[in-house]
Design brief:
85% helix
């Protein structure tokens, strides 16, 4: 447990940099880091990553707002769907077997990577 706590700030720092640069970090960095580097159970890793996204997003959002790059009407519209989707997704998470969760997460990550490259 102590090793996890010692590694956590480094993992968080990396996730924060990725979030600040690309607008992501919770899923793309934290989940694999928590699962594979820190031996956190998959469901807990996903839930922990989501919980960590809030403070990362607040800080990143404040910086983006300061520089005038936030589209507020779009943010509001996307937020409505995201709140509903977040509720549904977090409710479903506990019911999804780890094997299915890993495969689905991996597929989403591969699709995102391909879309970013092309």
């Amino acid at each position: 447990m102590k090793k996890k706590i010692k590694r956590a700030p480094l993992v968080g720092f990396f996730a924060g940099i990725i979030n600040g640069l690309f607008g992501s970090g919770g899923g793309t960095v934290l989940v694999p880091s928590l699962v594979f580097c820190m031996n956190v159970e998959d469901h807990k890793a996903h839930a922990t990553a989501i919980s960590v996204i809030l403070p990362i997003s607040i800080i990143s959002s404040l910086v983006y707002m300061k520089h005038g790059v936030v589209d507020f009407p779009l943010t509001l519209a996307v937020s409505v769907g995201s709140i509903i989707g977040g509720f549904v997704g977090s409710t479903i998470l506990r019911k999804v077997p780890v094997k299915v969760l890993r495969r689905f997460f991996g597929i989403i990550m591969i699709i995102a990577a391909i879309r970013m490259v092309f």
